[in-house]
Predict the structure.
Amino acid sequence: MQHPPDVLVQAIRYDTDVISARQLGRKRAEELGFSRPDQALVATAISELARNIVVYADQGEIELATIHQPDRVGIKITAKDRGPGIADLESALADGFSTGNSLGLGLPGTRRIVDEFDITSSPGLGVIVTVVKWSRR
Amino acid sequence: MAVKVPILKQGKVLIASIQEDLSDSDILDLQHRILEDVIRCRAEAVIIDVSAIGILDSFGTKTLSEIAYSVRLRGAKLVIVGIQPDVALSMVLLGLTLPDIPTALDLDRGLALINGG
Ligand SMILES: Nc1ncnc2c1ncn2[C@@H]1O[C@H](COP(=O)(O)OP(=O)(O)OP(=O)(O)O)[C@@H](O)[C@H]1O
Ligand SMILES: [Mg+2]
């Protein structure tokens, strides 16, 4: 059976958008047959990425795309913003680094709970974080 | 802003039962109201029931730790009850901890924990 290339986009600006985005992600994960723990991990990753947009970049978006492969299905989460960007990516990915007086666990923690993690940023041009979570069938 | 989390008073114990997924501002609102009520009611203990919550991310965990800390500064005790297994698992994998905060499986056990010590 051929699946449509389904993509969902949630604009992120207010903290209520963070809730909408993670609920959207959990629902999609559930529809795709992800295990309950994996649904929670998808929602958590989205929550961290979306909150970073609200806090550090004012606005942006979260895109959720489904990847169908013969032996597995995945959710690709892309968080994009055109905020100030991150000057030192290596520090930003280290546990405990925060310019926002927070725990500094959002990015490194997200990296730990997903299967693929990619981040690109240039100062002044915003941040794009792309992560994938797979579920085997 | 509408109050999202009712805080009930049972003797010297305050019980905040979170009913739904909360936004960051809802969590901050809860923080303020708990501290106000602890002072106003001279509460000796606070129980936060998180069993209806589907995730606890860095912000939620950080704020719960802050609430626990300030409740303790008032000489009261805070117990978190009902962290769901999936929530606990994602917290661990993300690297989040709730150091020194007593937790219990459910409300009854949380109350027992308070009365027992
Ligand atoms: N979208 C973004 N735009 C600009 N800077 C960002 C963005 N996301 C993260 N950062 C920077 O990277 C740092 C680390 O982010 P991370 O999410 O790991 O921690 P935090 O947001 O500071 O704390 P926590 O997520 O634990 O509450 C942030 O403090 C901030 O300086
Ligand atoms: Mg963060």
Observations:
- The radius of gyration of chain B is 13 Å.
- Chain B has one domain: 7-114.
- Residues 7-114 of chain B form a domain with the Transcription Regulator spoIIAA fold (CATH 3.30.750.24).
